[in-house]
Amino acid sequence: TKTLRETLQDVIPAKQEQLKKLKTEHAQTVVGDIKVENIIGGMRGLKSMLWEASVLDPNEGIRFHGLTIPDCQKVLPPAPGGNEMTAESMLWLLMTGQVPTTEQSRQLSQELASKGQLPAFIEQLIDSLPQTLHPMTQLGIGVAALNHDSSFQSAYEKGMKKSEYWTHTYEDCINLLARLPALAARIYRNVYHPGKKIPAIDKDLDLVGNYTNLLGFGGNKNLTEYLRLYIALHGDHEGGNASAHTSHLVGSTLADPYLAYSAALYALAGPLHGLANQEVLRWQQAMQKELGDNVTHDQIKEYLWKTLKSGQVVPGYGHGVLRQADPRFIALQEFCESRPELMASSTIQLVKKTYEVAPAVLKEHGKTKNPYPNVDATSGCVLYHYGLTEYKYYTVIFGVSRALGAITQLVWSRALGLPLERPKSLSMDALEKLIKSS
Ligand code: NMX
Ligand code: MLT
């Protein structure tokens, strides 16, 4: 049976051909137009970059190579003894467009586990950081420093051919993903449970199985399964989201994958993006503290208005592309509903009740183009219930996950020879001039 790298090697020529055809036959074909609102409005809706692994439809949500989330849940192999799709099987799908066999997915788990040990200097570097430094800042530092061993960087220095770019990028990307659990877990241990011994990587476990173990939740099967689903679901959300786009931009300079992904993590660390993960829980807990348990719909409504009137956003609601409830949110809600212990949790009940009230309030408020929940509206609350209560850590888990999509595109960008990203900017004066002349 073929490895991920061999499978990828097989599918690359057809994609290279597809791109060549697009370039030669359609370079001048017009597929949209640019309005002033796109230029001043954060490029919303502008179709202007290639991204292979997934496409986001505003109403239907994400598809990974054409597969919806329920499709993926049906066909992607779980870990031994588990039900949820693994990070490895999602990565395989993202990279190759194919569904791996259970054996292929297991083989990839073994490869990742065998490469997962952190270099000693990275352990020392992370251990030297103050406990008070935000876990996301620490993660970005660790990922950037892993480029000490970058295969791409050293081959580039030696003058490698362009046709070899993707192979070295691939090697770095797999090493990066393999090392993320140990890095992310070390940060968690240092910040929240210093002094406890961190177990070794288990060669028989999948990436998330190892991650949970290293975090210190090894016996917690519920959390492990939840994290498998979480990490597969957050893996990719097409290319325009801030973290994926950052990775793509930095990667386009031929900075190695560690530097590109480190930059992406700092985009993810903003509250309008991945940090919403922690903000939702903070907001929900403040509501619970103020209103107590068994909150009514009317009380939630009032609390939502209080948040909005104070000029803050309702975290976990709204989206730059989606115009319906995020199917990732729905998948996590279904996970909750299949588990009585979660449905008994007052935090999870609060998420559900908020969902019953918030869209109408946000519609009445009249600002957001999407009054429905995104994935962050629920993801952290389940972590909290299963014992991972330190919410400042939540975006780190998102950061482990988002690597799946980012590294996939880094490899494809190099295999397809995509150029340096460099859009044209305008000053307001230049824009006015352009408007007058058009
Ligand atoms: N609560 C209150 N106001 C909102 C919300 C919200 N949840 N969402 C959007 N708005 C406001 C937004 O601030 C803007 O106001 P103004 O005109 O004063 O600048 C207006 O509605 C129009 O914004 P949109 O065009 O609907 O949204 P945009 O595409 O600019 O931003 C988000 C998308 C996701 C940044 C925005 O909806 C938001 O801030 N949501 C809350 C934070 C959040 O949940 N982020 C996580 C996104 C998912 N992720 O994981 O990355
Ligand atoms: C994501 O998963 O990246 C978020 O939903 C934000 C986005 O897609 O813009």
UniProtKB/TrEMBL annotation:
SUPFAM superfamilies with a match to the protein in the record: Citrate synthase (SSF48256)
Cell location: Mitochondrion
Catalytic-site annotation from UniProt: 273, 319, 376
Keyword annotations from UniProtKB, A to Z: Mitochondrion, Transferase, Transit peptide
Species of the source: Pleurotus eryngii
Keyword presence, Repeat: no
GO cellular component, as recorded: mitochondrial matrix
GO BP field: carbohydrate metabolic process; citrate metabolic process; tricarboxylic acid cycle
InterPro entries given in the database record: Citrate_synth-like_lrg_a-sub (IPR016142), Citrate_synth-like_sm_a-sub (IPR016143), Citrate_synthase (IPR002020), Citrate_synthase_AS (IPR019810), Citrate_synthase_euk (IPR010109), Citrate_synthase_sf (IPR036969)
UniProt record similarity statement: Belongs to the citrate synthase family.
UniProt-recorded name of the protein: Citrate synthase
GO molecular function: acyltransferase activity, acyl groups converted into alkyl on transfer
